[in-house]
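Question thread 4412

I'm putting together a teaching handout and wanted feedback from people who do this every day. The idea is simple: show students a protein as raw sequence, then show them the structure tokens that encode its fold, then repeat with a second protein so they can compare. Below is the first pair exactly as I plan to print it.
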Amino acid sequence: MARVECQSYRLTVEDPVSMSYIARHIASVKQHFTQRPGLRPFGLSTLIVGFDYDGSAHLFQTDPSGTYHEWKANAIGRSGKTVREFLEKHYTDEIAANDEACIKLTVRALLEVVQSGGKNIELAVMRRGKPLEILDTKTVEKLVEETEKERDAEAEAKKKAAGKS
């Protein structure tokens, strides 16, 4: 559905489709199915990520009601609110500009709600001009290990600072 709309837009307007346009289209289709009698509604929210033709990255969330919102960082689903609050506190534009720091922030956010380490975490990285990269389990486990060590070191530093004051 979205690919067909992108192709139709390109043929009609002779420009590539923007992320906001395609997010709006998907949201309106979801809203249409939710409102029409006899059609089964979409019962899920989606995160849509991509790049506009000018190279700017975008992250949109669409809801079954037909609403859509653009975010810098977001999480949906069970415990999504906890992860979102963590991201609101710790996200900065400097972190977003650095791939490694951005991935580590993602792991830290997910570890706020995931108890059993990296085996329940799947990560995918999207970079402009490259296909979506799904990180393998060993890489995720290594990132989780590093992140947990950093978090423990921060906790130790806070304990020492609290003990001195």
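The second pair follows. I'd like the answer to focus on this one:
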Amino acid sequence: KQWYQRRVVITAGEEVGKTFKSDKNCVVAKVDADSEKELGSRFGVSGFPTIKFFSKDNKEGEAYNGGRGEEDFTKYLNEKCGLKRVSGGGLAGDAGRIEALDVLAAKFMGAEEKAAVMEETVVASADMEKEAQYYHKVMKKVIEKGDDFINTETSRLSRMLEGSMSDEKKDQFTVRLNVLGAFASSADDHTEL
């Protein structure tokens, strides 16, 4: 039974490593404390498996005592690293989305005066991460090209994601698709009215 438990944990760990491989801020590593005795001793490793989380602020490591499945590890690392990864390395459907800007995206798609809502978005997103800039860019393009820009751009990015590209580009395009989803659902809601 112990061999089986080890195999399950090792397999889950390898899969989690693949899930986070493209993230520079969340590194999954495996160390054999039997062959690296000094390292094992330094961090209090006394049995298999010992799983620790090391942040930039905590060089001693924090013991992980959660579930031993891939989903458990992925959820834990997403929380600790501030990420939204799914098994296999992709991003969750809400990665890159910002709730306050999703509300403004819905307001924008239903507004007569789209420029005023765009300006409101610029002000609201001034201190936010770079994903916030994409909301503004989409609004600008919708004003220039019309509401159909959402569908056209969604189709274009979806086709591009089917091709070969770096993991970093896949993440970038997935985040953009996710943000476009905030506009698309709003556009669909207003079309049905």
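Top answer:
Good format. For the second protein you could add a caption like this: DSSP finds eight helices and two strands in the chain. Residues 167-192 form the longest helix (26 residues).
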